[in-house]
């Protein structure tokens, strides 16, 4: 029960100190995000990558700072539960006029759970549900820089209004020809509108923060006419002469979902009111969960909070059981899922059979590398949780036996909270979006006759298209990873998945390395007949040596797969391909990786 009186002289001071800790965190987060504009204007791509990595660490650093202060100044961990109840109520009071209340609640949860042991705090002491609404928050400079701006063109003034819209972002670098680019955008918008009558509410709305990532920035908004809304994003890039161009016009939910994909790095965007951005973006992508939008904006801890709330809600409204995930079992990760929930849960095993030579800390380091790296649309983002409690009656006995066998150190079955319900507590787990494993996707096509050249009919033809699409996308995925300085290590089909948009994404990180740390070699010519006939490797192999021509036997056993692969991606079997990319990266080159099809680029229009 919550107290009827706030009579602790300490509670307000603790709540205020915690709020000071959050405000410091968000000020630093926002300052770093705002600096992305200058880095873009000066083409400081390495600085952009460095800032991207460092900003991810901000949150945990600030939580640690705040926790240490509360222990040092207030002995917070020794305070009674009555005091902690009052601390939360005071904190709620401090949230009333706050511009980031949902983020501040999550910060409170992080600090509180760091100070209080899991079995010691109850849901009363953290924000399981939000206590303060994020609706209709207005910033202090709403006229000068609201969350979004509205423009009211006519068909005749559309191009000039688009020019003004872009100029309002005050990019300190000249465009090659902004009027020309605005004409391209106008034509793309006119194509969407067709011959529709322009209604009284015809307008363009754009978020006032530019979205920075990799070597580009994006104007994000929507075109509104009557009852129809057309989501759009305009990528702005540097051309070869160092001037700016609008590179394309992306339209519709599917294009935006690709841009904001869970397999891409987080954007840098300066936001006073993040909930207003999320609400605006959700109106453009209603199928995208709010947690993934917060993640895409760089607010990953808020994404984790919302994911967990969604997960608890789903558990309450479902009855199916967690199970061992379908597919080939991995040597390093134990994977389980809930069939009705579109995510998988991955637990690091306690031991790994040969030839795996790794450790739990090394594996966690690889996952952190991916979190901090530009994932270029080809590596799935992961949510990382500790001490997660699941209802025991939702776990199949087979799954419990599997965890007890392969990851006993990660499992506890108890009523740790003392609420009378037995829980399965997983000590450490990664959670990823569920995808169709690429080996299963290809096998489905094989089973439908796609690999049989004599098979005829629509089903066989469709299966052949599926094989071609999967293999081409697999090669594209690897080449995008190479451009991002990532060598996947284990390139087997089972370690890649197909998303709902048909994109191939890598999700097995325990063997990844930087391309620049690898040594790509050709297999030496045999010295004699004995070498040539030997079933053993007769030449020396260093720990970071990679022989691309040896990939073939593991990947291309099926003739249908081999034919497509060699036609489109045969260069992946050539050490020179990998070595040339390594040399360019070492020379400081940062590759362009486009989150949209190249056919959409205006450069194709001349």
Automatic annotation (TrEMBL):
Keyword Cytoplasm: yes
Location in or out of the cell: Cytoplasm
UniProt xrefs under InterPro entries: AceK_kinase (IPR046855), AceK_regulatory (IPR046854), Isocitrate_DH_AceK (IPR010452)
Primary residence: cytoplasm
EC assignment: 2.7.11.5, 3.1.3.-
One Pfam family of this chain: AceK_kinase
Active site: 381
GO cellular component, one term: cytoplasm
Binding annotation for ATP: 325-331, 346
UniProt catalytic activity: L-seryl-[isocitrate dehydrogenase] + ATP = O-phospho-L-seryl-[isocitrate dehydrogenase] + ADP + H(+)
Gene Ontology terms: biological process: glucose metabolic process; glyoxylate cycle; tricarboxylic acid cycle
Keywords, ordered alphabetically: ATP-binding, Cytoplasm, Glyoxylate bypass, Hydrolase, Kinase, Nucleotide-binding, Protein phosphatase, Serine/threonine-protein kinase, Transferase, Tricarboxylic acid cycle
Record-annotated Isocitrate dehydrogenase kinase/phosphatase (AceK) regulatory domain positions: 15-318
MF terms (GO), sorted A to Z: [isocitrate dehydrogenase (NADP+)] kinase activity; ATP binding; phosphoprotein phosphatase activity; protein serine/threonine kinase activity
Domain Isocitrate dehydrogenase kinase/phosphatase (AceK) kinase, chain residue ranges per copy: 320-597
UniProt-listed PANTHER family: ISOCITRATE DEHYDROGENASE KINASE_PHOSPHATASE (PTHR39559:SF1), PTHR39559
Its biological purpose: Bifunctional enzyme which can phosphorylate or dephosphorylate isocitrate dehydrogenase (IDH) on a specific serine residue. This is a regulatory mechanism which enables bacteria to bypass the Krebs cycle via the glyoxylate shunt in response to the source of carbon. When bacteria are grown on glucose, IDH is fully active and unphosphorylated, but when grown on acetate or ethanol, the activity of IDH declines drastically concomitant with its phosphorylation.
Record-stated family: Belongs to the AceK family.
Protein name from the UniProt record: Isocitrate dehydrogenase kinase/phosphatase
Organism: Rhodoferax aquaticus
């Amino acid at each position: 029960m919550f107290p009827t009186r706030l009579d602790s002289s300490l509670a307000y001071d603790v709540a205020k100190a915690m709020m000071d800790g959050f405000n410091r965190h968000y000020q630093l987060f926002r300052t770093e995000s705002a600096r992305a504009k200058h880095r873009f204007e000066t083409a400081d791509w390495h600085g952009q990558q460095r800032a991207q990595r460092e900003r991810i660490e901000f949150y945990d650093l600030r939580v640690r700072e705040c926790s240490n202060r509360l222990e040092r100044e207030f002995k917070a961990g020794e305070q009674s539960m009555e005091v902690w109840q009052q601390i939360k109520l005071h904190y709620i009071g401090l949230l009333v006029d706050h511009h980031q209340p949902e983020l501040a609640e999550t910060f409170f949860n992080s600090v509180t759970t760091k100070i209080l042991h899991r079995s010691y705090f109850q849901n009363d002491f953290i924000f399981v549900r939000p206590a303060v609404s994020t609706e209709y928050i207005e910033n202090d400079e709403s006229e000068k820089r609201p969350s979004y701006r509205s423009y009211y063109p006519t068909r005749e003034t559309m191009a000039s209004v688009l020019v003004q819209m872009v100029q309002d972002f005050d990019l300190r670098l000249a465009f090659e020809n902004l009027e020309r680019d605005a004409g391209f955008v106008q034509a793309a918008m006119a194509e969407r509108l067709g011959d529709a009558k322009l209604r009284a509410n015809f307008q363009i709305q754009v978020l006032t923060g530019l979205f920075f990532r990799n070597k580009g920035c994006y104007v994000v908004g929507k075109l509104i006419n009557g009852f129809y809304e057309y989501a759009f994003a305009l990528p702005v890039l540097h051309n070869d002469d160092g001037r700016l161009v609008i590179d394309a016009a992306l339209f519709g939910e599917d294009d935006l979902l690709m841009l904001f994909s869970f397999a891409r790095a987080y954007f840098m965007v300066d936001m006073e009111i993040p909930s207003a951005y999320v609400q605006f973006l959700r109106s453009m992508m209603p199928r995208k969960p709010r947690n993934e939008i917060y993640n895409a904006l760089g607010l990953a801890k808020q994404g984790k909070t919302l994911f967990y709330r969604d997960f608890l809600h789903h558990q309450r409204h479902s009855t199916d059981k967690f199970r061992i995930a379908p597919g080939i079992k991995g040597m390093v990760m134990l994977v389980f899922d809930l069939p009705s929930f579109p995510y998988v849960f991955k637990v690091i095993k306690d031991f790994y059979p040969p030839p795996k030579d790794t450790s739990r800390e090394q594996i966690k380091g690889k996952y952190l590398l991916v979190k901090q790296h530009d994932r270029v649309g080809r590596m799935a983002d992961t949510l990382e949780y500790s001490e997660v409690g699941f209802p025991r009656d939702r776990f199949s006995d087979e799954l419990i036996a599997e965890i007890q066998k392969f990851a006993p150190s990660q499992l506890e079955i108890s009523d740790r909270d003392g609420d009378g319900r037995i829980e399965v507590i997983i000590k450490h787990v990664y959670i990823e979006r569920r995808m169709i494993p690429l080996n299963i996707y290809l096998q489905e096509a094989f089973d439908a006759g796609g690999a049989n050249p004599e098979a005829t009919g629509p089903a066989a033809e469709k299966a052949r298209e599926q094989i071609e699409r999967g293999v081409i996308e697999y090669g594209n995925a690897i080449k995008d990873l190479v451009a991002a300085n990532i060598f996947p290590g284990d390139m087997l089909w089972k370690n890649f998945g197909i998303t709902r948009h048909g994109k191939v994404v890598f999700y097995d990180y325990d063997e990844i390395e930087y391309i620049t740390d690898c040594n790509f070699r050709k297999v030496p010519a045999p010295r004699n007949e004995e070498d040539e006939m030997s079933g053993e490797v007769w030449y020396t192999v260093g720990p970071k040596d990679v022989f691309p021509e040896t990939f073939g036997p593991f990947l291309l056993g099926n003739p249908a797969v081999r034919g497509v692969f060699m036609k489109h991606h045969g260069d992946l079997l050539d050490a020179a391909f990998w070595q040339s990319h390594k040399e360019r990266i070492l020379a400081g080159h940062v590759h362009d990786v486009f989150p949209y099809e190249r056919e959409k680029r205006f450069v194709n229009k001349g």
